[in-house]
Write a structure and sequence with these properties.
Layout: H1 2-11, H2 28-35, H3 37-68, H4 75-83, H5 90-100, H6 108-115, H7 132-157, H8 161-169, H9 174-185, H10 187-202, H11 206-211, H12 223-232, H13 237-268
Helix pairs in contact: 2-13, 3-4, 3-7, 3-10, 4-7, 5-7, 7-10, 8-9, 10-13, 12-13
Family: Belongs to the binding-protein-dependent transport system permease family.
Keywords: Cell membrane, Membrane, Transmembrane, Transmembrane helix, Transport
Protein name: Sugar ABC transporter permease
Length: 269
C-alpha cells in the first residue's frame, strides 16, 4: 500500500502518460490544476455535495434512530428496512435511481408527482444542470441514512435509562430530556457519523460517475471524477496523480480539523 502511494506522490511531479517513460515537470501539474476552471468547479461541487450529504444524512439518520428506539413492535423490521440500502453496491443504487429520475412525465418520480396532483414539480432531475448535483446527493442520503441510523442507535442504547427517569421526575419534557440528557451523550456517535459521511462525501465517485458522469456539462463533476477522467480518458496520469494528491491532503486536513473539534466537544459534553 505504501509503495504505490509514494510512487503516486512522485508521479504527481511528472508528465507520465501511464505507459513508457516520463520526465519531471516540477510543480507544473499543480499550477495547471489551480488554473483549470473545470477542476476548480469540481472543488466547489465536491464541497457542496459533502455539506448536503453530511447535514441531511445525519439529520435523517438521527430521526430514524429516535423513531426505531421506541417500543413499537415493528422496530426490528424497520431497522432492517432502513439499513438495507447501505449494503447495496453504490453503482446499483445509481442505476436504480436513474429509473427513479426518469425525465418522462409518466415514469419514476415524475409519474408519482403527476399521480398526486403535483405535476408542476416534474423535472429533468439528472439532465438539469441546476438539479443534477442535488439529485445525486439525494440518492447518497437515501443509501446511507440507515447506516448513520445504526451508529446513532448504538449511542442511544448506551444512554442509561436512569438518567431519563431522573429527568422525568424533575419535570423535564421530551425535548428537554433529549437536549440535556440524550444529545450530550450522543457525542461519540455524532463524531463517528460526521467523520464517515464527510470523508465519503469528499471522495464520492461511484454514484456520480454512474448516474451523471459529471454532467450535464460539468455541473456535477467532483474531484474524484476529474481524477478518473484525466487518468483513464485523457491518459494524463501525471496530472491525475497531482489531483489525487491534492484530494488526499484536502481530505486529511478536513478530517483532522473536524476530529479535533468533535473530540473536544465529546469532553465538554
Amino acid at each position: 500500500m505504501l509503495c504505490p502511494s509514494l510512487a503516486g506522490v512522485m508521479y504527481a511531479f511528472t508528465d507520465w502518460s501511464g505507459i513508457g517513460g516520463f520526465s519531471f515537470t516540477g510543480t507544473e501539474n499543480f499550477r495547471t490544476l489551480f488554473d483549470d476552471g473545470r477542476a476548480l468547479e469540481s472543488v466547489t461541487n465536491t464541497l457542496l455535495l459533502t455539506i448536503a450529504v453530511v447535514v441531511v444524512q445525519n439529520g435523517i439518520g438521527l430521526l430514524l434512530a429516535l423513531g426505531v428506539h421506541t417500543g413499537i413492535k415493528s422496530r426490528a423490521l424497520l431497522r432492517l428496512i432502513f439499513f438495507a440500502p447501505a449494503v447495496v453496491s453504490p453503482v446499483m443504487v445509481a442505476i436504480l435511481w436513474k429509473y427513479v429520475y426518469n425525465p418522462e412525465n409518466g415514469a419514476g418520480l415524475n409519474g408519482l408527482l403527476g399521480a398526486v396532483g403535483l405535476g408542476s414539480l416534474r423535472q429533468d432531475w439528472l439532465g438539469d444542470p441546476s438539479l443534477a448535483l442535488w439529485s445525486v446527493a439525494a440518492m447518497v442520503v437515501w443509501q446511507y441514512a440507515g447506516y448513520s441510523m445504526v451508529v446513532f442507535l448504538a449511542g442511544l442504547q448506551g444512554v442509561p435509562a436512569e438518567l431519563h427517569e431522573a429527568a422525568r421526575i424533575d419535570g423535564a419534557g421530551s425535548w428537554q430530556r433529549f437536549r440535556y440528557v440524550t444529545w450530550p451523550l450522543l457525542a461519540p456517535a455524532l463524531t463517528i457519523n460526521l467523520m464517515l459521511s464527510t470523508i465519503g462525501g469528499l471522495k464520492l465517485f461511484d454514484q456520480v460517475y454512474a448516474a451523471t458522469n459529471g454532467g450535464p456539462g460539468t455541473s456535477s463533476e467532483t474531484l474524484s471524477t476529474v481524477l478518473y477522467k484525466e487518468a483513464f480518458v485523457y491518459g494524463k496520469f501525471g496530472y491525475s496523480t497531482a489531483v489525487a494528491l491534492v484530494l488526499a491532503l484536502f481530505v486529511a486536513a478536513v478530517s483532522l480539523v473536524q476530529l479535533r473539534y468533535l473530540r473536544a466537544r465529546e469532553v465538554t459534553a
